[in-house]
């Protein structure tokens, strides 16, 4: 700032740089986030170890493709939890290594939701349980919803605005509807199979 006195009065001249410094990141709001993931990762790791042991050792003779696919659920949770712990611990992300962690965290975060929902959808449809093959229409619908969900999550993480969350919410609702419809169809198929077994007077030995 500069002040110049003259007969007309006082002239104030203020010169500001057009390249203002970006606002500092408030890492205080992420203070307890690493602790949450530090507690969650061992739990998911224990679940992963137990599921792998049951699927590939204890019940390997009876394990189906669905059981092997569900291994991805605790596996991606462990990976996402570890990367989240490191990512939030690296705040304010000023060095190159912290930016690398943030990049990998973003990639795993984008992939996490579609993978979890795909496993949930296959369980709801009774794949490898009540039927071994899914109809082509079901595969096309599920694939389209997962692709759009992947795109909406990518847009939401890129824009970071309230409006960017609308497509993601819409795709979550579409996936929820598809899961509920699949659960209803699967329960009807199970009921029909039980009626057929009772009609044949088959005794079920459940242990």
What this model shows, in words?
- With 207 residues, the chain is mostly helical.
- Helices cover 67% and strands 5% of the residues.
- It has 6 helices and 2 strands, in the order ββαααααα.
- It has a two-stranded antiparallel ribbon.
- A hairpin with a 2-residue loop joins β1 (2-6) and β2 (9-13).
- α4 packs parallel to α6.
- The relative contact order is 0.07.
Q: What global shape is seen?
A: globular
Terminus-to-terminus distance: 84 Å
Q: Helix content range of the residues, please?
A: 55-70%
Summarize the helix and strand pattern as letters: EEHHHHHH
Quick check: average pLDDT? 81
What is the count of β-strands? 2
Assembly type of the shown chains?
A: single chain
Q: What class would the helix/strand composition place it in?
A: mainly alpha
Q: What is the makeup of the main sheet?
A: 2 strands, antiparallel
Radius of gyration: 27 Å
Strand content is: under 5%
Strand order of the largest sheet: 1-2
């Amino acid at each position: 700032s500069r002040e110049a006195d003259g007969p007309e009065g006082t002239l104030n001249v203020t010169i500001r740089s057009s390249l203002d410094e970006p606002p500092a990141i408030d890492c205080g709001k992420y203070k307890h986030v690493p602790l949450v993931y530090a507690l969650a990762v061992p739990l998911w790791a224990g679940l992963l170890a137990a599921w792998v042991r049951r699927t590939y050792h204890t019940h390997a003779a009876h394990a189906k493709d669905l059981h092997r696919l569900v291994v991805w659920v605790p596996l991606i949770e462990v990976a996402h939890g570890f990367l989240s712990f490191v990512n939030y611990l690296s705040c304010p992300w000023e060095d190159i290594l912290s930016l690398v962690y943030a990049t990998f965290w973003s990639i795993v975060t984008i992939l996490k939701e579609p993978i979890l929902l795909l496993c949930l959808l296959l369980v709801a449809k009774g794949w490898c349980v009540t039927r071994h093959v899914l109809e082509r229409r079901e595969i096309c619908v599920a694939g389209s919803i997962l692709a759009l969900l992947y795109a909406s999550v990518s847009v939401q993480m890129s824009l970071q605005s309230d409006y960017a969350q609308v497509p993601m919410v819409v795709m979550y609702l579409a996936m929820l509807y598809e899961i509920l419809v699949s659960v209803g169809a699967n329960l009807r198929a199970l009921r029909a199979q039980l009626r057929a077994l009772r009609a044949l007077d088959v005794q079920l030995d459940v242990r």
